[in-house]
Amino acid sequence: MGSVDARLRDAALRAARNNAEWCDAVCRAHGLRGEFGEDAWTCARRTPRYYPDAVTLSPDASAERVLSRIDVGAGCSIKDSFARLDPTSWGFRVLFEAEWIHREPPEAGPPGGAWRPVRDAAGLRAWEAAWGDGQEEPGLFPPALLAEPTVALLGGWSGGRLIAGCAANLGPAVVGISNLFVRAGDPDAAWAGVVAAAASHFPGHPVVGYERDEPLAAAMRQGFSPAGRLRVWLREAAEAAGGTGTAASS
What we know:
- By secondary structure, this protein is of the alpha+beta class.
- It folds into two domains: about 1-100 and about 230-240; about 105-205, Aminopeptidase (3-Layer(aba) Sandwich).
- About 30% of the residues lie in helices and about 30% in strands.
- It contains six helices and eleven strands.
- An eleven-stranded mixed sheet has the order 1-2-3-4-11-5-10-9-8-7-6, with helices on both faces.
- Strand 7 (about 150-160) and strand 8 form a beta hairpin.
- The longest helix is centred in the N-terminal third of the chain and has 28 residues, at about 1-30.
- It is globular, with a radius of gyration of 18 Å.
- The protein starts with a helix and ends in a 9-residue tail after the last helix.
């Protein structure tokens, strides 16, 4: 039992670190500077929409220390990678919970279907439009991401149409999958394509990420295993939270 727990803890630690590296890459592409500490990655200025202001990297991280390094105004969010924090006294509520996932390195080979990385600005615009299903304001994924050697925005094509995609980022020990979208076809087939495309682009590495609900079930069917619970916290406006929620300095 102890060896199983140790493997799950290691998988969660690596997944959290990889996710923080992805958040850092997105922030750099927006001209923001993040900081890696032993307990958490943080960004002192407000991060792009959908991206946390902090990602905890250790189960021992404390809410007070993490919050002292970020802008805790309304809209602040924290990815609590080990579901250990309790920042409710600062006006935060749980936005959602999810599960870290991991799987052993897939066999390298050509991805099934027409999966390929985005190479240019036109491809990036098409990928982001498909990711947002035409409902999101463009610009969340700046062209600077295409110059990151550890980042690949992958798209699955069918009949000349972009029907699925994801972001993949390479860390020292794992490849992370995030921002998975499926606009047509079978989610299981999309996950199979994602795994094969990630293995083709960044071969020989375990694959990690986080999911919830049906996407989590689809990932499990493609060989992923759960590695631990995470929570994302969001700070509401002071009047909604019932106080100022100012973070104390460490």
